[in-house]
Batch of 3 targets.
Target 1
Amino acid sequence: MDHSTEQDPAITPFRIDIPQADLDDLRDRLARTRWPDELPGAGWDYGVALPYLKELVGYWADGYDWRAHEARLNGFPQFTTVIDGQRVHFLHVRSPEPDATPLIITHGWPSTVNDFVDIIGPLTDPRAHGGDPADAFHVVAPSVPGFAFSGPTREKGWNTGRIARAWAELMRRLGYERYGAQGGDFGAIVSPQLGRVAPEQVIGVHVNALADAAIATGPEELELLTAAEREQALANEAWWYGHSGYATQMSTRPQTVAYALNDSPAGQLAWNLEWFVDHDPTRTEQTPADRDAVLTNVSALWLTGTAGSAARLYREAGADGWGVRPEPSGVPTGVANFLGDHAIRGLAALSHRITHWSDIPAGGHFASLQAPDLLVDDVRGFFRTLR
């Protein structure tokens, strides 16, 4: 299908304003949660632990303040535009430094642009945050198609390549001819794809939580690794086997789980906790994601009815073939491997031109939530070499 005519170049200011009736309905549904039983002593071995979820649902209903987080998000300039037939919502925060480098940052699942509220200030205005003004960025942070205010998607095919092409068009509309890209989780797949589809525009790509460099696609790739890397790749594969149930479901039958996600906020929270670091509070070496941040992401998906739409990203990406190594990219790439991430440099080098690699023994998979200062420092250090 030719989508080239499905463009509306207009950029429209946007403000989040959830009707109070929707918040009242959410609170009512939380109060009427129909809880399952739990095996004695099961803890987290069978999934999200019942006492943990009950406490968090109680806080969501009676302690968490959506309006406060809505107001914080509304403190950033927000816009929508239509690209390739899809509404795209984005934050666009220009730096006070005139020579700042444009940077487009991409979240993953089950996140939203709320993941970036603690890093936008330091990235756009380092002078005000004790940094060097030469490290400033103009930040563009889109909501991934299908997620929250960019959702739902209306047709098949919104895979990572199509998202990357939409990002290239978004940056063109904003007047940015040369820019960097950053992302984690699915954003760590989309951002390098942007470098592949717009290599003349993307000066460099920085990623964290580089999901496609953790497991070898076959024995041939294992042979290319060092002994230590091979051992890690096999350990990663075993770990993923025990943690990938959610991804298998969404990459094959996302519509089936969408009914539950869209009908039960407690169920949606439990499903999202499968990947937020809160899913295993026994891993005390990682920095827990703030529960308000987790609930703001979950609330944004709930209040827009897009949890099912967001789940489809796995199906669209899976249609391209899980385990297929991305084509090599010539764009300089920096990797920040935080505590709990599983990227292996030997595998990453098969698809990326690695010019910067940091193993950071802190934070966690959602670095912008768990170690924002460390992430900002690494992003600055990488792009400093490219200016």
Target 2
Amino acid sequence: MIPVVDMGAFLEAVKEGGGEKASILMQKQPEVKKIVCLVHDAICEFGFCYFTNHYLPQHVVDRVFYTSKQFFELDVKVKEKFARRPMESHGWSGLEKETQFPDMKESFSFTPAVAKELPTEVPDFDQSYKDLFPFLHELADRILDLMGVALELEDPTLLSRTHKLIGQKGNHTTMRSLYYPPYPLREGQLHCGEHHDYGSITLLFQDDVGGLQILREDGEYHDVTPVPGAVMIFVGDMLQRWTADRYPATKHRVVIPTRVMEQGRTRQSMAFFCLPDDDTLITCLDGSNKYPPVTAYDRLMSIFAATKY
């Protein structure tokens, strides 16, 4: 059972408090403290959860899904003009280009600070991405603030404070649209192979097709049923290192159901990979030295280097 947390009361309290931090709101409103505890328990046990009532306009998300699909359906020669280069975080990646065993998916990554050119072949493509990014940034900031309180850090603002350059030079936070066409798979191939995310947290939006699976303690993969209008939160590699495994980065994959493939349906999702500022030193917050200190930029580059394109 995937944990589902209603964020409405927390975000409403933030709004009414003029942007007050979670540490202050917890002292004022018992409902906020309850939500903080629910999120903490879900993340500690699962490494992920669903958030409902996140106040992110659905029509803005839907517009990115719409323009992205139009782009992915263009001729490959057009898309190649926007190809993502190795060790970079912006641009298009084609079928069978990523992970150790090539995945049957396409993606377009948008990183504002390094974005050179956005497709003009699809009307409103660039604006749809630019409109959604700030909403995701704000939601991620609220979640990081909440997690800093939940972890009972000496400085509860540490996580949100070390992500202050999102969308600017010095931070590689990326918004990525993903597209899974109904093409036959080779033996052993997946639409998206087993992995865990590489940043602090990931915000994931998906359509109703299904196919996302998460690895649990029993060593088996379990299906994740899409929740309409909800955003899924994943812990990434960097936050796992920061918390010395208290917040685990759960492995997951995508296997599109056979019935969906037979119907010729595509699958879409959109992920916001939230990363700390490049110069942030990620060191175990409990002082355990379970993982050696590393800057966010160096960790990201080492992950990129291990990924096939």
Target 3
Amino acid sequence: YGGWADKFYGDVIPVPTSHLNYTRREPAGTVLQITPWNAPVFTCGWQVAPAISMGNAVLLKPSELTPFTSLVVGLLAEKAGAPKGLINVLAGLGQTVAQAAIAHKVVKKVVFVGSPATGVRIAEAAAKRVLPCVLELGGKSANIIFADADLKRAALTAQAAIFAGAGQSCVAGSRLLVQRSIYDEFVSMVATGAKKIKVGSPLDDATEVGPINNRMQYDHIMKMIASGVQAGATLAAGSAERSAGGYFVAPTVLSNVTNQMDVARTEIFGPVVAAIPFDTEEEALTIANDTEFGLAGAVWTNDVGRAHRVAGQVNAGTFWVNGYKTINVASPFGGYGLSGYGRSSGVEALYEYTQTKSIWVETAREPAATFGYL
């Protein structure tokens, strides 16, 4: 983004009059950015960099559960030479500090990363001042496995897609759609791998999956696992029993899931994957799109035509072919539907942090007569 700062141009428009018409991209002003607890330092940098590169000031409101890394980033920015006040970190509760910031006249745009329920409240508060928003919300992403895929590689990646970070990721591959002819074999591969993953303290070098961030989220995950089992899903891996020594959730694979079950429709935000069978490409697309969310998705197949067809027809802002969870700041990121709107990276983010001014310059010696009196 530092490289973009002096290369983001306006346009000259060939209007059908005697005017020179050109556009300028101007800063939005002061931007309020509200970031989540699951990746605090990552989302801090992800949001701040494009905003300041386009000439905006930032009010950064991190989650009250994870404020310290953002405070350090603000301090380091000033030590690196950023003007004081360019990046301001507001530590406090969302319902008080964030709401007060949205209501303040200095704020000209709001960017929020978090849950759909909170996103609705943010958008409602911003609408009272007619403030534009970028909302990066949750997901229930479909990871689609066809019978002709490299099953070993797909199974390993399916585990990483949902179990990395204890599943506390908006793009997690939480719905595993598997072609029926390989369903039992593939689900067994994923479940067997899940049982080998070491869950424990982050301070233990052998740990591969750590605890859930907070009690409220832990309770939600355990409630969802129990409801899935009660609805008829099978625990192919994991447990519905609560941990005795902390907020630990074993990597969980729920098989025999239908897309109508709550575990297939509600964002769990934990290491829990719902495995759903399908027969045809058309059925896979129908299931993948039968959701309010539209953040991400993937397809695994050796059929190039099918890969492009599926990628083009799944409603998702990010989609992978024979891979999962590759993200880079140079590429746009955002969602469809309940997953939000606007883009928070790539060149598209620079448009989000600027506004367009159209300038008309009369060049004719004698301008055409307009309505008026001397």
